[in-house]
Amino acid sequence: MARKSSFICQSCGAVSSRWLGKCEACGDWNSIIEEAAGGGIAAPVGGKVARGAKFVLSGLGGEEPMAPRVATGLDELDRVTGGGFVHGSVLLIGGEPGIGKSTLLIQSAAALARRGGRVVYISGEEAIAQVRMRAQRLGLADAPVELGAHTNVEDIVETLRQGRTPALVVIDSIQTMWTSAIETTPGTVTQVRGAAQALIRFAKTTGACVILVGHVTKDGQIAGPRVVEHMVDAVLSFEGEGGHHFRILRAGKNRFGATDEIGVFEMTGQGLAEVANPSAMFLAGREAGAAGTAVLAGMEGTRPLLVEVQALVAPTALGNPRRAVIGWDTSRLAMVLAVLEAHAGVRLGQHDIYLNVAGGLKISEPAADLAAAAALVSSLTGAALPPDAVYFGEIGLSGAIRPVVHAGLRAREAAKLGFAASFCPAPKGRKETGPLRHNPCDHISTLVAAIAARAPRQKRA
Ligand code: TYD
Ligand code: MG
Fold first, then answer.
1. Ligand 1 pocket, 102 CB below 6 A?
2. Please, which of 172, 260, 395, 414 could form a disulfide with 213 given CB 3.0 to 4.6 Å?
3. Distance between Cα 41 and ligand 2 center (Å)
């Protein structure tokens, strides 16, 4: 029989019957590579379908001998995984190169090893000496982590099977692994998928927890094997902004916990430090009492997070006024500007507008509308907002401000950081008001009137 080959897109994994310059599924150019057919995981051995052997089925009940989760002791990491790694589970951690994945993992590996678990760290990218050097810099050289620099999964699995079952195995990174069962070059979708499959099988059969590191392409996808995302139990992403030191660990998929938890870290000279109070970090250095800044009592997952929204509004010298936004959505800004003009008479059509979320955080929740509007009006009128107030609420196209979820949590977090007042729509119940002095804000015109009343005389419109 003639040997067939298939053409697989290295970006999305789509299979086509012939070579194409552009993948029809994801639109990527030059991403299609010819791979020998029958090399996939589902391929029958030797081309024949062998008859399988029987196995025992079991029920949903029944005792599991092991503790269900292994906590690393790094609270921010354990919070995101839902209280620690589940035995036999496989996690994929994605992030841009240099964001700190290897640092995070060597730190958690060391923390777990110090608590007595067997931890194996396999590096496919760095030599043993390099991993050791980093560990020494981080003061982790004494942690009993077992280290290996290897890329063949069969060898790795065979080595891992020797001795006590590891509590945690770190594979840094999955893109460097290859399996001898498949005849394509390492790094291709088929190889990565095959290698991941072998490691997942190892985790499920032994109860060890395996963490796979995955590189992320410039558009934020875990490079190559989106398919791996379906195979693993949890997908975490490690994010940060260039030039800022904070890093956020976020769960995108988690079979054993919530997906809306975040962990916040700060990259320091001694590795990643946990940030237990992110609001204080994001508000550090704030110039309270300056016009054009408003504090948003926001939420990241289930965690309240206070950030400063800054606006600068200045008359334009150009025909087409500039709109520059960092950390927020440009179309959201356009909507807030339109509502301000239509329902509160605030004309910004002849002004350049710059909007920035301080600290480099990206905000996506609609609750930021009110804080952005307050910052814009404050900058336009020159009226500083009360320094002890927080803002949150979603602005509708009619100018009405709609309540957002977790008003109570937001208010309590603000009170903890010394804020005394809130501007937001009327909360539903008393519990929701929290400890702050509540300034009801049910329509955009109420907000604008409140800010205009504070404006210096000459600027008041
Ligand atoms: P690394 O963990 O190697 O990133 P990844 O594995 O995601 O590619 O992190 C590399 C970056 O982190 C590097 O630019 C330097 C910085 N870093 C520190 O600032 N402090 C430290 O203590 C360490 C170990 C790294
Ligand atoms: Mg690395």
1. yes
2. 172
3. 27
Measured from the CB, is residue 107 less than 6 Å from ligand 1? no
Eight-state DSSP code of residue 152? B
Residue 241: HSE in the Cβ half-sphere, 13 Å Cα cutoff: 12
Q: Which residue's alpha carbon is nearest to atom 1 within ligand 1?
A: 100
Measure Cα distances from 313 to 134, 171, 329, 378 in Å.
46, 49, 17, 9
CA distance 328 to 181: 47
> Ligand 1 atom 12: the closest Cα is on which residue?
100
Q: What is the pLDDT of residue 190?
A: 82
Q: Confirm if 459 and 383 have CB atoms less than 8 A apart.
A: yes
Domain boundaries, the chain: 5-36, 70-276, 281-460
Q: Whose CA is nearest to atom 14 of ligand 1?
A: 98
CA distance 234 to 221: 15
Amino acid at site 255 = R
- Ligand 1 atom nearest the C-alpha of 101 is 7
Rg, Å, the chain Cα set: 27
Residue 369 pLDDT exceeds 60? yes
Helices then strands, counting H and E runs in the chain, come out as 12, 23
Tokens 């063949």, residue?
152
- Name the token pair of 338: 């339109």
Which of 267, 264, 268, 257 minimizes the C-alpha distance to 280?
Answer: 264
The Cα–Cα gap between 206 and 166 comes to 9
Shortest-distance atom of ligand 1 to CA 104: 2
Structure tokens at 449: 């009137």
Ligand nearest to the CA of 124: 2
CATH class in words for 281-460: alpha beta
Dmax (CA) of the chain = 89
Residue 288, token pair as written in the block: 């309270």
* Index of the ligand 1 atom closest to the CA of residue 95: 7
- Element (DSSP H or E) covering residue 228: helix 226-231
- Among the ranges 3-7, 30-34, 450-454, 455-459, which has the highest mean pLDDT value? 450-454
Task: Fill in the amino acid letter for 146.
Answer: E
pTM (2 d.p.) = 0.79
Please tell me the distance from the alpha carbon of residue 249 to that of residue 247, in angstroms, as a whole number. 7
Ligand nearest to the CA of 216: 1
- With a 6 A CB cut-off, is 97 part of the ligand 1 pocket? yes
Place of tokens 């024949």: 48
Q: Please indicate whether residue 273, judged by its CB atom, sits closer than 6 Å to ligand 1.
A: no
Q: Tell me the per-residue pLDDT of 225-276, one tens digit each, with 9 for 90 and over.
A: 567 888 899 999 898 877 788 899 988 888 887 777 889 999 998 999 999 8
